[in-house]
Amino acid sequence: MARRLHAVRGMRDFVPPEATLRRRVADTILDIYQSYGFEPIETPALEDLATLLGGQAGENEKLVFKVLRRGERLEEALTAGSELADAGLRFDLTVPLARFVANHLHELPMPFKAAHVAPVWRAERPQRGRFREFVQCDIDIVGEPSVAAEIELCSAGLEALRKLGISGCTVRLNDRRLLREAVEAHLGPLDDPYPVYVALDRLDNSPAEAVVKELAPYGEDRARALVEWVTDADLASAAALSERAADMADGLSTTLAALQAAGHGARFDPALVRGIAYYTGQIFEVAHPEVGYSLAGGGRYDSMTARFGGPDLPMCGFSIGFERVCDLVDRGLFATGAPRVAVTCATEEELLACLAAAPAARAARTGGTVSVLRRARNARKQREDLERLGYSEFVDGKDFVTGPR
Amino acid sequence: MARRLHAVRGMRDFVPPEATLRRRVADTILDIYQSYGFEPIETPALEDLATLLGGQAGENEKLVFKVLRRGERLEEALTAGSELADAGLRFDLTVPLARFVANHLHELPMPFKAAHVAPVWRAERPQRGRFREFVQCDIDIVGEPSVAAEIELCSAGLEALRKLGISGCTVRLNDRRLLREAVEAHLGPLDDPYPVYVALDRLDNSPAEAVVKELAPYGEDRARALVEWVTDADLASAAALSERAADMADGLSTTLAALQAAGHGARFDPALVRGIAYYTGQIFEVAHPEVGYSLAGGGRYDSMTARFGGPDLPMCGFSIGFERVCDLVDRGLFATGAPRVAVTCATEEELLACLAAAPAARAARTGGTVSVLRRARNARKQREDLERLGYSEFVDGKDFVTGPR
User: Fold this and answer.
1) Chain B CB contacts of A359 below 8 Å
2) CB B88 within 8 A of CB B108
């Protein structure tokens, strides 16, 4: 017997009941997105490295699966000691969207509302619950400068979750520019606040004192004051930071009020950072009482199209973590009531007769399944396996052909 | 302005009207597959090279996009001059399915009917109509040794095409074992008939004399006789080759008769080869009068699971070339009649009011779209762009909030 081979480390197969659930969940999300006017787009799994590394995605850029050059170009690269790869698998859908918009501007309405549901790949260290291939369900609005974008994205995303039976979510909301105001109010002006953001981001999982230690090079007392501020501040204290901060607090109020008026949970979270460098305005994550991680997140990333040779456009996006949502969906949600009939046959002759009869049976039961297959030696196990896939009616091939249908 | 970046060479973006069509086409195919009892599965885009290169896929193995090892393992490989890659993007869905079945046997009913719709990647020379990323829509039956598998696969596939408005298809049918009988009857016994298959496969595009030339090393007269045979033979002359060939001709008759009885076009094609080494029995391709290429193809590839450490199982598969089918689908097929309403707003205030009012409007029009968005400066162009996306109703934001809804 040959060596047993498995799925690539950190990636997964999905067997039928799971794969069917995934299909239904993705369809539900896309249907809600489309009802809001977000139009499906597709981009390739691979992007040029110049694209992937040109979007200011920070840490994620280090996680790119790179694709080896081929033939002569690989030989040349090996000889010259230059880059062995010139393309890689996308690590998110945001950078490809910005590249897409820059390329297809004349074919798109503007403002443009895009829906993009597809797998992404990150070479993270495989660990429990973290995978190297996962699906993101993104919506983005290109060309809308106001918080109307943030409000619509969060509303559509929360509506999709609600449709999947996931209610009780809370949007945690912050603004990257406000965060910068807060950081500089405490630590003084900084050329690059990104390392401070990365440290503050750890407040989710690390004790506050550890984060203070990490920020000690900026002055320990100042660092402690900053950590306390981002832990405790409300919108009033945010507005008190500066005139610019007051504007941002206003914007956050508008978004929060609109979401709350629509019946969604939403609150200001001054400690919300999101680890990606490209955000330029409001940022958000969706928390759910049953789990310790975010179900969705996003934010404003104006001007990214300009990095890919397009015009400077306002952009804002929202991304649902598909696998995290699938884990929370009640398996019974998609029970349609449409019958699933298994016709099991003892012989090839019976199979052929039942295959010939099946189309008429299918036509008579719209929306259901009629599956013809050979009866297994262990018929009981076969029946149990099929019940697990939702089959509820079992017919002997002999009766299927001759019986009253 | 930054350098303009594009999609990776040989791969494509899909803008909304196309991407929406693709979504509907894939759904239609999967729905038909599921109504026949083919259950969705998913496998990762990446497979270990040992898996990809272990399935006897012949030429396709040369087209693998290989993924660079990372970190220390890459350093080691560079130092040792060993393989720089240990995984690659799948070039078909058949090899991953065989690996999947070997891994998940105890979780699957047997016989197992799988539906697998997903992209594959091949590093072919980019040219008109040939792309490096494309979607395959596969169904496979694992554990059915008789031609009931071939018949059901072709029936389900042709039914899916019919549902997409693509009728008038013809299944071209042959048997790899019969082809071997024919080759050896003319050229004498061969250790490896695969190079002869590859030459005969060119009869689709090259003049017969060119193929005879290529086969001249086997003896020019013999080669010419073989080429003439595969061009002209019918099932009777096939059955006359040998006792084994008579058995295969019998099997082909059974498949043809069942497909014809179900109203599908089907004929024996002794010149049908299919370029992949792994086939072990009947092979088929689906031709359509309007195009010069096949819309779908497949065949029997018994025992492939054994190559991946699983038991020896009969397997047979059918694959629809998704892009080729999308090109033939009438764009009007999916017009649902569900209204698409665009609400255009002049100001942020109007946007916020309309966003708040939109959910009720959506609830009142089940299945339709209500898209709220800022009115563009060039409102006429915006309207035309939205009409192209299927919007037929345009409402001014002011009327949307205050008007009678």
Assistant:
1) 155, 159, 262
2) no
Ramachandran sector of residue A105 (left: φ over 0; alpha: ψ -120 to 50; beta: rest):
alpha
The Cα–Cα gap between B214 and B342 comes to: 62
Cβ count near B261 (within 10 Å): 13
Q: Look up the CATH architecture of domain A16-332.
A: 2-Layer Sandwich (3.30)
Question: Is the ipTM here above 0.90?
Answer: yes
How many CA atoms are closer than 13 Å to the CA of B100, on its beta-carbon side? 29
Query: Which pTM was predicted?
Result: 0.94
| Residues 6 or more apart whose Cβ sits within 8 Å of residue A140 | A94, A97, A113, A114, A116, A153, A315, A316, A317, A318
Q: Minimal Cα–Cα distance from B246 to chain A, Å?
A: 19
Q: What is the DSSP letter of B84?
A: S
Q: Which residues of B178-198 are buried (b: 16+ CB within 10 A; e: fewer)?
A: bbbbbbbbbbeeeeebbebbe
**CA–CA min distance B286, chain A (Å):** 20
Scanning B240-346, the segments in alpha helix (DSSP H) are 243-261, 322-328
Chain B residues near residue A45 by CB distance under 8 angstroms: 45, 89, 119, 121, 133
Phi then psi for residue A53, to 5 deg, are -95, 5
Consecutive H or E run containing A305: none
Residue with the two structure tokens 């345009």: B394
| pLDDT tens across the length of chain B (405 residues) | 467 789 999 999 999 989 999 999 999 999 999 999 999 999 999 999 999 988 676 778 889 999 999 888 888 888 888 889 999 999 999 999 999 999 999 999 999 999 999 999 999 887 877 899 999 999 999 999 999 999 999 999 999 999 999 999 999 999 999 999 999 999 999 999 989 999 999 998 899 999 999 999 999 999 999 999 999 999 999 999 999 999 999 999 999 999 999 999 999 999 999 978 889 999 999 999 989 889 999 999 999 998 888 899 999 999 999 999 999 999 888 877 778 999 999 999 999 999 999 999 999 887 789 999 999 999 999 999 999 999 999 999 999 987 544
Q: What is the DSSP string of A90-137?
A: -S-SHHHHHHHHHHHGGGS-SSEEEEEEEEEE--PPPBTTB-SEEEEE
Query: Does the beta-carbon distance from B307 to A2 stay under 8 Å?
Result: yes
- Given 3-state DSSP classes, what are the helix, strand and coil percentages for chain B, each rounded to the nearest 5? 45, 20, 35
Tokens 């409402």 -> residue: B395
**Pairing outcome for strands B265-268 and B170-175:** parallel
Ranges of each domain in chain B: 7-166+288-333, 170-267, 336-402
CA A76 from chain centre, in angstroms, equals 38
Superfamily of domain B7-166+288-333: Bira Bifunctional Protein; Domain 2 (3.30.930.10)
Euclidean distance between CA atoms A337 and A358, whole angstroms: 20
Q: Is B163 in CB contact (< 8 Å) with chain A?
A: no
Q: Which of B9, B11, B13 to mutate to test the interface with A (most CBs of A within 10 A)?
A: B13
Is A138 touching B (CB cutoff 8 A)?
no
User: Residue A173's beta-bridge partner residues?
Assistant: A268, A284
Q: Which of B45, B352, B371 sits opposite A36 (nearest CB)?
A: B371
